[in-house]
Amino acid sequence: MGFKFCQQVPRAPSIVRWRAPSPSWFKLNTDGSSLGNPGLAGAAGIVRDSAGHVHLAYQFALGTGTSVLAELTIIWRGMELALTHGLAPLVVEVDATTLLVEDVQHVFREANGAADHLAKEAASLQLTWVLHHDDITGVLHGILCLDRQGVPHLRRG
Fold first, then answer.
1. Which pLDDT tens digit goes with each residue over 14-32?
2. Element (H, E) at 93
3. Cα angle vertex 121, ends 117, 126, to 5°?
4. Do the Cβ atoms of 59 and 42 come closer than 8 Å?
5. What are the C-alpha distances in Å from 134 to residues 31, 53, 76?
6. 93 beta partners
7. CB atoms within 10 A of CB 40
8. What range(s) does the RNase H type-1 domain occupy (predicted)?
9. Do 35 and 122 form a contact (C-beta atoms < 8 A)?
10. 113 partner at 20 to 30 Å CA-CA among 53, 89, 94, 151?
């Protein structure tokens, strides 16, 4: 019995950032999180306009589940909430490449920081919230301000 060791070739770091949707469009960024996969799951999303202003942010505790279940659930709930609040037409971005289908765009986690922050918080604290613009404070507010300013993030290989 032998062992074969393969050296993993590191990828070069790259710069990524959140990109605004086209004028008169809204963008839904979502993220699902499972602490253990399966484990405690949570998911979140944020809907912003072409100026980067938040119209809706939400997070859901999902109990025990997988990251794929969390990702799919939050896309569905996000689209439902966006349509309920008249936030259309809508572009959807996710950071899970396993879910890519037509009209759903991939975005690196580093450029999806706001949804990532809310999803991890929803999973770890088992929170369910729907936030409106005036409810957003603290770390989330800071992440959204950096996104709106187009501040780039380093993506490590």
1. 998 999 999 999 999 999 9
2. strand 90-94
3. 155
4. yes
5. 22, 11, 24
6. 29, 105
7. 18
8. 29-99
9. no
10. 89
